[in-house]
Amino acid sequence: MRKIVSVFGALLTVGLMSCGDVNRKGLPVDLFVTTTSQPIQRFDLFGGNGCSTASTFVVLEIQSRLLDTTVTNTSFLDIRLNSYRVTYARTDGGHQVPAPYVRSLDVLIPTGGSSNTVVFHITDFQQIFTQAPFPALLPQNGGRDPETGLAVVKMNITLEIFGETLAGDRVSASTTFPLDVCYNCGGCQP
């Protein structure tokens, strides 16, 4: 009886190991994301101060790169993007950031191809400028971040793209860009 349990345990262990991420690390395809438009680097909360709608768009180029050129049948290596996540990290010593969020996405990237149809708009999603720490920058709220004492909030925005190959292997990529937010500080600037 012990032999049967030992053999079953060994087979179960081998079976579980073959389904894990250990085998997924050798994917012949990878996902890369780069920012193709220069997003604004300073956003002025004071309305009409040079923050045009066009200056708050971030255009991304998302590429699927074939890493193993010996692969001849790439039909199942196309990548379907299904979501993205936006997170914020302060670079000025403060800790308060807008809430992260996830959005759906449906874009097919052919193996070895790219897409620049993904556009991220920093001022529309989740109305981030109504969330802490930004209201503190308004004059009626003191005009300064309570954590740092500064009139400018400095942070990085990270955009992570998630998808999977048509074969079912998960892939992801990310890009990060800086953003300073202030009130009546001379307008938005690239």
Walkthrough of the structure:
The chain is built from one helix and eight strands; from the N terminus they run H-E-E-E-E-E-E-E-E. It is mostly beta strands and 190 residues long. The protein has a five-stranded mixed sheet with strand order 2-8-7-4-5, with no helix packed on it. The protein has a three-stranded antiparallel sheet with strand order 1-3-6, with no helix packed on it. A hairpin with a 4-residue loop joins strand 7 (152-165) and strand 8 (170-182). The relative contact order is 0.25.
Output the keywords.
single chain, 1 helix, elongated, 190 residues, Immunoglobulin-like, mainly beta, five-stranded mixed sheet
Helix-strand blueprint:
Elements: H1 2-19, E1 29-35, E2 42-44, E3 57-66, E4 79-90, E5 101-109, E6 114-121, E7 152-165, E8 170-182
Parallel strand pairs: 2-8
Antiparallel strand pairs: 1-3, 3-6, 4-5, 4-7, 7-8
CATH-defined topology: Immunoglobulin-like
Number of domains: 1
Radius of gyration: 22 Å
How many alpha or pi helices?
1
Q: What oligomeric state do these chains adopt?
A: single chain
| Largest sheet properties | 5 strands, mixed
Examine the secondary-structure arrangement and name the CATH architecture: Sandwich
Question: Could you estimate the helical fraction of the residues in percent?
Answer: under 10%
How does the helix and strand content classify structurally?
mainly beta
Helix/strand order? HEEEEEEEE
Mean pLDDT over the residues: 81
